[in-house]
Specification:
Number of domains: 3
Shape: globular
CATH class of the largest domain: Alpha Beta
CATH architecture of the largest domain: 3-Layer(bba) Sandwich
Low-confidence stretches: 224-228
Structural class: alpha/beta
Number of helices: 16
Number of strands: 20
Strand order of the largest sheet: 8-7-16-17-18-15-19
Bound molecules: flavin-adenine dinucleotide
Strand content: 15-25%
Distance between the termini: 28 Å
CATH superfamily of the largest domain: FAD/NAD(P)-binding domain
Length: about 475
């Protein structure tokens, strides 16, 4: 057995996805110790993967991030990439929903769960007359007692907006983002803003009105982007060379600062006289560590921490994850009947189709397809359609192209196909998640010099993941110096 000398014990980051890389960046700034990232992958960045094929630029997972929270833009700024930021193209700042055999725009002003424009609801073809009336009656629905505890997305949305609006609007828009089962998705963890709206304003309609009032610009300032519907697409940005340019730039900086990348899968952690020792799979080399940031997915973190903190491991193992596949298809623009004047189309589970959504990648951002091409990304799987990531290539491609034919009127086969399989990549924030994360924080605090980071805890979006990386590194640097 070989060991690195204990006197030189570094701080080890387990997992070099975005959370781990940001943790390493913070440690370089705040700790005097060496930093080692241990990760089985041959490249930093985790799920952030961009592929260039000639003039096609294909995102295998995330394709943009929310700029309304500061962490993503601040990282881009630190890396000197601010001039590479791209907003969502103006013509793509709306979402469509597949209903009754066609793509229908989300009613203007409807934001995930909150109706912002009553007139648009009165005229939407997405709902029946009874469904529209029920949604318009939302302000009269009594508020739920906060003491009743956590509530699922389905229960909340059906109670406030009616079953039709839940099935045709909320489930595809919100549960789709989380690839979640809406009967299990926690409102407190996934959508706390809307729980607060109900509590503070008595209804989502009143809460959204108050939000819009507060956001209304003073004289001479630009009008807010109130016509956008679905998600607020005006608030999302990407990088011109793709999302992977973020971890690439971060890693260049970390490498230059002496951070080491050890290619191995950590499979255990034990205490030592002056810190910890990490075991790696298939290797007799053990890695001493003064402190550890565990930034790999929670189901992998659970067995790693099993020896030193079995109760913590149990809580981590209880966070379920869903798998998915993203099939990216590049077409001749002329081969698609649909105008693609939107960010994409989401598909309600009750529509019984074979995909969760189709994102119009080349409509959202420039530089994603050749001039005569159109790039789309078909999302398959999630908690309601498990096992998709295990399907063979030909089945995934057949399913995705069939969806493109039915939904976008694709008349010829694609020129480009890129398949991304994501096994258990999306944590499911089920009922009770907020309490579980609190317990995880308390149990982890009992392990001096160990902290957790990643998308399983405070949010799956890129800004939230960055924030967990910084907080975990701060905690470990505070203990280890
Ligand atoms: C298909 C898809 C689309 C998405 N779209 C968006 C989007 O548009 N906008 C947005 O904001 N977010 C999006 N997300 C979410 C966001 O990209 C992720 O939440 C975030 O990048 C996760 O970062 P992470 O560091 O927590 O985890 P990961 O990226 O999963 O990194 C974990 C790392 O741990 C490593 N690891 C695994 N096992 C071990 C082990 N035994 N030892 C050591 N290391 C190990 C892995 O190799 C990996 O590098 C999307 C996610 C997916 C899957």
């Amino acid at each position: 057995m070989t060991t690195t000398p204990q006197s030189a014990a570094p701080i080890v980051v387990v997992g070099g996805g975005l959370a781990g890389l940001v943790a390493a960046e913070t440690l370089v700034a705040k700790s005097r110790r060496r930093v080692v990232i241990v990760d089985p992958a041959d490249r930093p960045g985790g799920v952030l993967q961009t592929v260039r094929r000639g003039e096609w630029l294909v995102e295998r997972a995330a394709d943009c991030f929310l700029a309304a929270r500061p962490e993503g833009l601040a990282l881009v700024d630190r890396l000197g990439l601010t001039d590479r930021l791209l907003p969502v193209s103006h013509s793509a700042r709306r979402a469509m929903i597949w209903w009754d055999g066609r793509a229908v725009p989300v009613p203007a002003g409807f934001r995930l769960l909150a109706p912002g424009d009553r007139e648009a609801i009165r005229t939407t073809p997405l709902l029946s007359a009874a469904g529209r009336d029920r949604l318009l009656a939302e302000p009269t629905v009594p508020s739920r007692d906060p003491a009743a505890g956590d509530e699922s997305l389905e229960s909340f949305a059906v109670r406030r907006l009616g079953r039709e609006a839940f099935e045709r609007l909320v489930q595809p828009l919100v549960a789709g983002i989380w690839t979640a089962d809406p009967a299990r998705l926690s409102m407190a963890a996934a959508c706390p803003e809307f729980v607060r709206m109900e509590r503070e304003h008595g209804s989502l309609t009143a809460g959204e009105r108050a939000r819009l009032e507060a956001a209304r610009p003073g004289e001479g300032q630009p009008a807010p982007d109130e016509q956008v519907a679905g998600a607020r697409y005006s608030q999302f940005v990407t990088l011109a060379e793709g999302m992977e340019s973020l971890p690439k730039a971060l890693w260049r900086r970390l490498g230059a600062a002496g951070v080491e990348w050890r290619r191995a899968a950590v499979d255990g952690l034990t205490r030592s006289a002056d810190g910890y020792v990490l075991r790696t799979a298939g290797s007799s080399h053990v890695q001493p560590a003064a402190g550890v940031v565990v930034a790999c997915p929670a189901p992998i973190a659970a067995p790693i921490l099993g020896d030193v903190a079995p109760a913590l491991a149990g809580e981590l193992a209880a966070i379920e994850h869903a798998g998915s596949a993203v099939v990216c298809l590049g077409y001749d623009r002329a081969a698609l009947e649909h105008p693609l004047a939107a960010a994409g189309v989401v598909v309600p589970a009750v529509a019984g189709r074979g995909c969760l959504a189709i994102s119009f990648a080349s409509a959202k951002f420039p530089g994603r397809a050749p001039g005569d091409g159109a790039l789309i990304r078909v999302f398959l799987g999630g908690a309601l359609d498990p096992g998709v990531a295990l399907l063979p290539d030909e089945i995934l491609v057949a399913r995705a192209t069939a969806e493109a034919e039915a939904i976008l009127g694709a008349r010829r086969p694609p020129r480009l196909v890129e398949i991304a399989r994501w096994h258990g990549a999306m944590p499911q924030y089920h009922l009770g998640h907020v309490d579980r994360v609190r317990r995880i924080g308390e149990l982890a605090a009992a392990l001096p010099g160990v902290a957790l980071a990643g998308n399983a805890y405070e949010g799956v979006g890129i800004p939230q993941v960055i924030s967990t990386g910084i907080a975990a590194a701060d905690a470990v640097a505070g203990v280890c110096g």
